[in-house]
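User: Good morning. I'm curious how zinc ion would be positioned relative to this chain. Could you predict the structure with it bound?
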Amino acid sequence: METTSEKKTTATQKLEEHNKRFKQRVEKVTEGVYSAIGYGLANSILICTDEGNIIIDTTESLSAAEKIKEEFDKISPKKTAAIIYTHGHTDHIRGASVFMDEDTEVYAHSKTKEFFNEQFNMLEPILTHRGARQFGIKVPRKYIPSSGLGPFLHMDRRKPEIIFPTKEFDNHLDIEIGGVHLQLVSAPGETDDHIYVWMPEKEIVFSADNYYPCFPNLYTIRGTTPRPVLGWINSLDKIRALNASIMVPSHAEPIYTKERVYELLTMYRDAIQYVHDGVIRGMNEGKTPDELVDDIQLPPKLTAYAELQELYGSIAQAIRAIFDGYVGWFDGNATNLSQLPNKDRAEKYIELAGGFDQVMTAISQAIYTEEYQWAAELSDLLLTVCPDNVEITNTKAEALFQLGLETANANNRSYYISQALELKGEIQLPERTKEIQYAFAKKMDIEQFFLKMKIILHPMKSSDTEVTINLYLNDQEQWYQLHIRRGVLEVQTNRAKNCDLEITTTADEWKQIILSIKDLSSSLDENLLEINGQPSTLEKVIHLFQV
Ligand SMILES: [Zn+2]
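Assistant: Good morning! Here's the predicted structure, ligand included:
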């Protein structure tokens, strides 16, 4: 059996070796087509045309995008005619403002905007923090030799403006810019808004994240709705049927020759199908997710591919996600229909083990024998009854840190180490300021903003409040009625007959007031908001929202 120090060396070496794929460079794919690799987590791709440049994906940060633009400008200093987002993930869209010129069109699937709203609005708090852990963005680089999909997710201090698409489509869209003809085609995979781009004249497919050289992330630990696994296979089959001569993915190196492209796509779709079908088969036999995780491993003909190492996606996590996606959280065992409250269970286990001190000794023993998962699980048991105990917190941190070092899966490794360093107080997760929230909120449709308002309404503070507000947004010429009652906010798109307040303002002014970017008094002084009723009532309502 491999010792812990051997495991650590193997994990680190695998990631270091894998990271060579992302050596920073602008690779000339063919005349007029270039891929910038290793500047950001994702690639940015340049297609030169007589009427300006086409940029496929823009990386995650302004600093990465600026370096790429400098290189692209040496190849073709023309303006950017079009940006194409292959999907709405951060590592593909946040560098966009660097490439934008006055008339640049931004192409994306029609679901990209919806995806932005979900990611940056309602779920922004959880996804920001879990995403930061998954990519280890606060973790010293020496602990993370590769992020699996690229060298590292660079999040600079400058917060890029999110550029929304200007041209959207559902199934496919043919475009022609400066004599270059491209087909943009819906291809769900990591996300529902995912597309690939086909360049028929040169037989090049830009496959985005439908293929990258790691086992695919059929689930992501930062959190996702069930990923469309069958849709992903179908998308790979569509790409395979193109019989492309070159495939340029949005992560890692381009693939050359028809045979190699076909082989890798076939291998990839087979790996996904093998896991998917295995889960369904086992589920139908009555197996639980835990049992399926023990059962399902890829066959040797697939594990032989370096491109299927679990350095990014994880088969065990994919199995749980596929199970959950089809039948939900219940594993089928009646014991788990309703469980003992966490604290009761922990107390009973601790008593059974001979008391708190006995468990403490067992944790120290587990650390000594390098059984770090067991040490972490026992620490959680004690932390359930003594959540503020510093000694146990530090022991748990040590166990997670060691688990991280022996893990080759970049997402898990970063998550372990990030959480360990947070527990030790050595790093802090990114701050979420009201200014950052407003930067996105100002671009949101007002309906999306109402959704945010519902979530940030303080349920206890508002539990006895009963108020009806008619809100007229004069820039949109639309009435809304907002009811706050019993700790919930309901919004309807008309004017209530009876109300406590009537307010006239613009959508942007309203967003600024609710997010405490601006005081109500300044909006009133500047005549940007009118109230029919008591301003103090509105003041009280504003205080019910917690940014
Ligand atoms: Zn990506």
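The mean pLDDT is 95. The pocket of zinc ion is lined by residues 42, 89, 91-92, 149, 209, 250-251 (CB under 6 Å).
Let me know if you'd like a different ligand tried.
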